[in-house]
Give the backbone structure.
Amino acid sequence: MVEKRKPIPVDEAVRAVMNVGGNEAKKETIPLANSYGRVLAEDLVADHDVPSFDRSPYDGFAIRAEDSAGANRNRPVHFRVIGEIGAGTVFPREVNAGEAVRIMTGAQIPNGCDAVVMLELVDEDSEEDISIKRAFSSGDNISFQGEDTEKGAKLVPKGTLVDPGVVALLATFGYVEVPVAIRPRVGIIATGSELLDVHEPLEPGKIRNSNAYMMAAQVERVGGEPVLLGKLPDDLNACVEAVSNALQEVDVLITTGGASVGDYDYVPDIIERLGGNPLFNKVAMRPGSVTTVAEINGQLFFGLSGNPSACFVGFELFVRPILCRSLFFDKPHLKRTKATLGKDYPKPNPFTRFVRATLEEDEGRFVAKPGGLDKSGSVTSIAGADVLIALPGGSRGYEAGMGVDIFLLEDHKGSEWPWDNIVASYKS
Ligand SMILES: Nc1nc2c(c(=O)[nH]1)N[C@H]1C(S)=C(S)[C@@H](COP(=O)(O)OP(=O)(O)OC[C@H]3O[C@@H](n4cnc5c(N)ncnc54)[C@H](O)[C@@H]3O)O[C@H]1N2
Ligand code: MOO
Ligand SMILES: [Mg+2]
């Protein structure tokens, strides 16, 4: 008799995985030029003002504003030009009454000056003599020291993805080496005697192994380091040995395939043979209901479905938050928000459905449009998906135009705990 499994709700399953200890975040330092896409392992605090000196935001003339008092169209005020500076050069002496310094954008405001007149507003009567036809106030056209940020300000918290703007800040504050989270090593093993390598021609009854490469990309999207450990035929001894060896090499291990109740579905036996503690082997979701997770000698082992869409969803819901947590992200789960459903789902389903979809804009609203065949075995519905639409299980279907919860796949800010009030109803 086939084993009868008891499905648990998605929120319970995610909680069970997150409750497993280990995989705590660790840091290393890497060169700034390699830091894009990594995750900061320390807060980035300004150790000096930015800008660190008052500077000119324009090409023009630095003056003492008080000297321009009363200037107008009919009564221009003249200044004597006593020198010229470009960015990077500091004017060497105090500027006195009636004097001006020709100054370029980015140059430090000379001592004594407190305003800049743009070149376009100046009549250059000669190289040494300029005149202006309006008065300026102290502070006009000056980028003040500390106006961008002040020394001591916490600019970017630990656990932030290093984007181009963060790279700019790291450079600004002199980070030759950047403290980042060590990328968790994620082992990936594909199982199934039907699997061909990508370079092999199709044969009757066989398919190419797409899940392993898909998951490697999913690992990379989150910031982990995928370790592709090949594919195995449906042979229990070979699988047990491979899983056991792999666990020595990686932080977290994923297999795809063999998670169901079929004759060659060995995930339950692998866990048993290695003395693992199964957390669950059925989740009230579709696709991905057969997702099986176990703790084997303190390490997390994810037995994801062989069906591509189920494998994809299982990764995003259960593996992703573990990797995010070990990368210092303080909100490790998929970001949840709302959109309009772009297609009818008239058939009720007892399990919560996670539909792969793209987010499109339609007259100012975000519409989540499901792509490809909505079946667990579909590989085409994953490409281009930037959201998962969550359709709670229950007795009714859903219609296009309804508001639905969606989970953003390309986002890196995440949610603290997005699972309340989504999986309220399910049946076993
Ligand atoms: N009697 C039952 N049969 C099935 C049940 C069930 O509850 N009772 N559950 C179904 C559900 S739901 C799913 S999902 C699948 C899960 O299957 P497995 O995890 O055991 O995976 P396999 O049997 O090895 O393969 C399923 C399917 O996926 C293809 N596959 C496998 N590996 C890959 C890969 N690396 N790349 C691309 N495609 C892959 C494989 O060829 C199969 O077509 O079980 C249902 N059955
Ligand atoms: O585990 Mo399955 O993906 O629900 O079709
Ligand atoms: Mg199977």
Remarks:
- Residues 423-428 have pLDDT under 50 and may be disordered.
